[in-house]
Amino acid sequence: MTWTPDDAEIRRNALALHKAWRAAETAYNESDETGDDLPPDGEAELRAADSDYYAKSGELRKEHNAKVEAIMAKYARPTPSLKSAADEAERVYLDAPGEAIREDDDGNAVICAKSGVPIFETDEVVEDSDTGEVFLRAALGLPPRPADEDLEEAA
Questions:
Q1: What is the pLDDT of residues 41-81, one digit of tens each?
Q2: Which one, out of 4, 51, 83, 95, has a CA that is 20 to 30 A from the CA of 62?
Q3: How many angstroms separate the CA atoms of 110 and 114, rounded?
Q4: Rounded to a whole number, what is the distance in angstroms from the first to the last CA of the chain?
């Protein structure tokens, strides 16, 4: 004989109710019913109210934008904007001698913990996983890593 729990009948009833609920939910989801359905007169009133609102809000937006532009023009700075200053600083950095500076996740320059010099993207480094410090291999007296082709020849 198969074991059945004492509340088997309650479980069967719960299953039947669950199936009925899911069937009703599926029927609703597949229907065009939104729950917000209005009679045609209500829909017309709603469209009229929306149209009035959008017309008035558009006029207010135009007035507001004109006021903002007038204020901005009145107080405009004759000096270059911060954006153009940033663009110029980037151009000068990219045109300068040297390579790209290595940056951390926050955009800060990575500095060798031993020598204090900035590290380029192409520099060979050693990172201390405990402290997070970064060292140039050369600053620690380590020789350069062998090139990939040197490793293949040695193998």
A1: 888 898 999 998 988 888 899 999 999 999 988 888 766 67
A2: 83
A3: 12
A4: 69
* One-character DSSP codes across 38-85: --HHHHHHHHHHHHHHHHHHHHHHHHHHHHHHHHHHHT--SSPPHHHH
- What is the secondary structure of 101-133 as a DSSP string? BPB-TTSPBPB-TTT--B-BTTS-EEE-TTT--
Tokens 């050693």, residue? 126
| pTM of model > 0.85 | no
DSSP, collapsed to helix, strand or coil, labels residue 8 as: helix
**What domain range is 148 assigned to?**
99-154
d(CA 73, CA 75): 6
Helix (H, G, I), strand (E, B) or coil at 147: coil
154 has a pLDDT exceeding 70: no
Can you give the CATH number for the domain in which 108 is found?
3.30.40.10
Confidence of residue 10 (pLDDT cuts 50, 70, 90): confident
% of the chain residues with pLDDT over 90: 32
> 36 to each of 40, 51, 57, 63, how far by Cα in Å?
12, 19, 25, 34
